Structure formats: C-alpha cells, structure tokens
Amino acid sequence: MTDGAGGGGARGCSCGCGGEGEGRGDLSFEDKVRDVIASRVRPMLAADGGDIEIIRIEGKTVTVRLRGACCGCPHAAMTLKRGVEEFLRRYVDRDTLVENAAP
Q1: Each residue of 25-68: pLDDT tens digit?
Q2: 65-85 pLDDT, tens digit each
Q3: Could you say which architecture CATH assigns to the domain 29-100?
Q4: Residue 62 φ then ψ, to 5°
Q5: DSSP string of 3-67?
Q6: What is the C-alpha separation between 13 and 20, in angstroms, rounded?
Q7: Coil, strand, or helix at residue 90?
Q8: Residue 81, Cβ neighbours under 10 Å: how many?
Q9: Where are the domains of the chain?
Q10: Which among 39, 41, 63, 68 would be 20 to 30 A from 92, CA to CA?
Q11: What is the pTM of this model?
C-alpha cells in the first residue's frame, strides 16, 4: 500500500492525491480512463495538432488510435508509452497498458 502521496491512489482516489481528490473514487475503470484522456491526454495532444480515439477497453488494456498530426508521427510510439500510458498509470491504475490500434 502506498502512502497516497502520489501515483497510486491507494486511499480511494485515482488521481494520486491520496484522498477522494477529484471525485473519481466511485467511477469504473473505463470511466476513469475516459475522464483522464479527455481532461489530460487530449489537451496535451491537441497542443501539437493531434487527437486520440479510444477504440476499446478490455480489462486493463486500453486500445487507442492517434489522429491528426500524431497519426504517422515518428514519435507516436513514444507518445503512447511515455505519454498516454504514463498518464493512465498515474491517474487510473498502475497496471494499465496502452496499445495502438492497427490502421
């Protein structure tokens, strides 16, 4: 169990604040994923002219498709693993995996 100081949300909050924080404690895994993508990931990608589409969520695996400027970018794989996956691991569940949908 973590001390709730960040990154795990062991005390009920998925945002890592250690408490009920942003009020996500009662949301399902899928709702938390959609919330974090909408509130944190999408704005980050939009700043570079990109977007993201959730294709499916199965267990703790989230399959997405990058769109806009992010689609075909040479850094797309890094964006998925070091950007999207890290956000979801930090704010939703540390065991979340992100996969790119086949084109």
Answers
A1: 689 999 999 999 999 999 999 998 999 999 999 999 999 999 99
A2: 999 988 888 888 899 999 999
A3: 2-Layer Sandwich (3.30)
A4: -110, 120
A5: -SSSSS-TTS-TTSSSSSTTT-TTS-HHHHHHHHIIIIIHHHHHTTTEEEEEEEEETTEEEEEEE
A6: 5
A7: helix
A8: 14
A9: 29-100
A10: 68
A11: 0.73
